[in-house]
Amino acid sequence: MAEFNWTCPFCHTRQTVSESKAHYSVHDINVGETSYAGGIAGAILAIGCSNSECKKVELSFSIGSIRSKNSYGQVAAINEIIRSKIAPESSAKPQPEYIPENITQDYYESARILELSPKASATLARRCIQGMIRDFCGISKPTLNQEINELKKQFDSGNAPRGVSEESFEAIEAIRKIGNIGAHMEKDINVIVDVEPDEAELLLSLVENLFDDWYIARQKRQERLARVTACVEQKDAIRKTHSER
Predict the structure, then answer these.
(1) At what angle do helices 197-210 and 166-176 cross, to 10 degrees?
(2) Mean pLDDT, the chain, whole residue set
(3) For the structural domain made of 101-229, what CATH number should be given?
(4) pTM summary value
(5) I want to staple 184 with a disulfide (CB 3.0 to 4.6 A). Which of 24, 51, 149, 193 is the partner?
């Protein structure tokens, strides 16, 4: 297998994968005559992370019709029909503990079922967005659409919570303009709604953006302030000690 670029789904480290860090094998599945011309086979793909602090393995399994065999009669390639991610279960990014657990759990589950049920995934992603607006922004209305409208009023008047940047609000507005998603913002947040797979992916991307722009950015600001405050207090204590001598 030739070298290729890859981003670890566990630690998100970008790296070039060498032959020694990747495994791909195809195995014939003999169950007699099937509806697939040429028979079926299964393929295993495993990639090991080179980051010394991670070293986890991405693993996926595919099933497909046999496309070709080598000179020994062994399966060489398949026409993929189904692919299943074994590890990690989804493309969800690990989120810090200071984000409310009920929100992150909905996010993880939404990512886990994205391919299996985009409708259910989108419903959970909408709950994440509503949960963040209620928790981070302190806005609670009967529908998500009404909550976004209230946030817009606060944003336009300069009274939105610190961290609600123009970029993050533009992302919310862009998602709301998408046909199916926008139409469903008025519905009960727990009602499963019809969306296209790519729309469900966009909702998940918005959730991840808001995690970064709101919670993670706020945490970083608080940590910077704490470091500055600690430094000031330390220097103040040193000055007091010198003045007392």
Answers:
(1) 160
(2) 88
(3) 1.20.120
(4) 0.72
(5) 193
